[in-house]
Structures are given as structure tokens and as C-alpha cells.
Amino acid sequence: MKYKLMSIVFCGLLLCGMGLNLATPDRDISYTERRQLAQAPRIDGEFLTTRGGGETIEEYLLDQFWNRDFFRILKVWFDQKVLRKSDTNGLYEAEGHLFQMEYPLDEDSVRSAAQKMLDIQKKFLSQDAKVAYAVIPDKAHYISEGTKRPSLDYEKMTAILSEELPEMDYLSLEEHLSLEDYYRTDLHWKQENLAQVTQAVWEQFDIRAQLNIQDMSAHAYQPFYGAYYGRTASSIKPDELIWLTDEEIDGLSVKDYDEVKESKDVVYAEEKLGGVDSYELFFGGNSPLITVDNPQCRGKRQLIVFRDSFGSSIAPLLAKEYSRVVLVDLRFMGYEFLDQFVDFDDADVLFLWGQQVYNNSAMLRQR
Questions:
Q1: CA angle, 75 then 80 then 83, to 5°
Q2: Residues 350, 224: one domain?
């Protein structure tokens, strides 16, 4: 009788789950996972005779499972509280933020990044060109020692770069940032908190100006699910995504050289909000080459920024003191023939990458 009752309960749970799945409408996007969800395949003769049909159905059923987000959160809780895992999918939670556990420091990769920087300097820049490099600290650099997991050694990384680049100016950003300047669910910094960083870049190139963010218009979108959120199914609250405008930023002229992007030639692609990655608000997402012209700038100075995705949110602020800002992303284009697209004459040059890029510099392309 006992086993019969257990079998009835088990079958009842299966039928109940099946009914809930059938009654729940399919979703196109998982905002928490920041990806498109598999849709129901069309069952026809071609599907039935094609290999891989079973895998397609399995993927669809897993993606459209009833209350999927709840069970993902439950799994994370079980991993952390019961199995006592230190991380989930390479991420962990501390001090109200999510962090990626990237370790150890790849010293050869850091040296390789430095050599690519020197190669660019030798190929394209004159001896009197103003050139500097900066390392954007991973936000794990700012959490207390009691909660920190193994992470990239910021001091060691900057020491290696200083050794490899003795004649290139180093712009330290460490003292201009704190943990609260980064999103809780994402690796990126917040645009509205970048006044000190922007002014540090200007001062590095002898521009004396004050950035008054409080005089700018702030626009907000929420909930913003950052890149880390979907990989952990964390119960942490999503962020608020804020972007800044004023008359000068509204007057910026943008040219995006990515021929396949949907959102081009814009500072803020607001149609990206609520999509798979709302951070693509800034310039519509990653692009190999973008030029930003400021017709209201008093001078005629140009800034070339070799950047990663961090550069997207700070570029509109930097452009307030430059007639042109050129954004070059070597993850998507090589630098060997860069002078065919970029004029380096009399330009200020800044290498602005996060720690993750220096530690994985193979992604920086030469050709």
C-alpha cells in the first residue's frame, strides 16, 4: 500500500507538472538569463526524418519549463547552502554584489598586451604623441578581504605593465573608483559615477575642465539584469541603469563602422532597453570602430581610445572636451592596417581596458 501510494503521488506530480507546462505561455526572452529561449519546433515530416529532433524538443522543454527561474534559484541555494560551494558557474555573491572568480593572473598575457600596445605606438604614433594606458580594476578589487575569493592581482598586473612600458604614461584609476561605482549584477561601471574618472583622463592630457554631472539630465531604466545575474539565478535585486544627457551630448554626431549592427550611429540606443542585454543602450553595443564628433567643442583635439565595453559608457562624457573621440575595439578588428581608417596625427591616445582583457589579451587582434 505504501509503495502504491508513492507511485500515485509521483504520477500525480508528473501530470501536474505537465499540466502547468501546457498552461504556461511560452516566452521569447529570459531577461534574467539575458538570452533568447528555444521555441516550439514545427512537427512535420521533415522534422521527423531529420537527425537531432529529439535534442531540439529537449532544449525547448527545458527553456519553457514552468517557473524555470524559481528552480534555478533553488539550485543555486542548494549549491551554496547544502553543498557549500564557493561559487556557482564561476560567480559568487558578497556585499550585495555578484562577482566573477577570475584567477590566476596570467603574466604572459599581460606582457603580450603590453607588446601589442608598444607595436601600435611604434607603427602609428609620433615620438611626441601623448599616449597613456589605464587598467580598469575588476570590482572584486574593492571588496573586503574577509569576503574576497581568489581574484586577479591588480598591483601585480600594474607592476608588470610598468616594467614592460617604462616610457608610456600610466593613468591610475584605482583611487577614483569604489565598489558602489559598479553595477551589482554586472561587471561594468555606472556612467553616472564617472565624473572623477573622466576628469582624470582629461587631466592626463592637460585638459583642465570640470564635469558637473548634477547639471545633466539623468534617465533611468529598471530592472536592469546584468551579465552576472543570469548565470547565477541569484535572489539579489536587479540594478537601475542610468544614462546622462545634456544639450552637448544630444548634439554629438556618431558614425558606427559595424555594417551588421541593427542600432547604428546613436549615442544611446534606447530600443535595446528590456532586450537581451540592456547595457547595449550605449552606442547600440560593441563595435570595432566608432567615431564621435562634438561640433560644440571649442577646440580641435582628438582622442583615440583603445577600449573594451567599459569605454562605451564613458565615451559620451569624454567627448565633451574633444572635437572627436575615436573608439577602437581590438576584440573585433585588427590593428595592422588601422591607419587606413584612423588619423593618428596630433591625437591623444589612451589604452583603456579592464583587467579581464589584459588577462586574456589573445582576444586583442593584430590582423
A1: 90
A2: yes
Domains: count for the chain: 2
C-alpha span between 272 and 141 (Å, rounded) = 30
Same domain, 246 and 337: yes
**Taking all residues of the chain, what is their mean pLDDT, rounded to a whole number?**
87
- Statement to judge: residues 182 and 320 lie in one domain: yes
Reported residue count of the chain is 367
Question: Within this chain, do residues 138 and 278 fall inside the same structural domain, yes or no?
Answer: yes
**Of 163, 221, 176, nearest to 203 (Cα)?**
176
Which positions ≥6 away from 99 have C-beta within 8 Å?
91, 92, 93, 138, 139, 140, 143, 149, 151, 228
- Residue 318 near residue 305, CB atoms below 8 Å: yes
The pLDDT of residue 26 is above 80 = no
Q: Are residues 197 and 334 in the same domain?
A: yes
According to the model, what pLDDT value does residue 215 have? 96
Nearest to 320 by CA among 348, 295, 353: 295
Give me the domain span that covers residue 34: 2-94
* H-assigned helices in 49-144: 53-63, 68-77, 107-124
| Nearest by Cα to 350 from 198, 233, 182, 142 | 198
Dist. CA 183–CA 188, nearest whole Å: 6
Q: Confirm whether 348 is domain-assigned.
A: yes
Q: Greater confidence, 18 or 40?
A: 40
Region 156-180 average pLDDT: 98
Select from 94, 123, 154 the last residue of a domain. Answer: 94
Q: Is the pLDDT of residue 32 over 60?
A: no
Signed CA dihedral, 13, 15, 18, 23: sign only = negative
Indicate yes or no: pTM above 0.90.
Answer: no
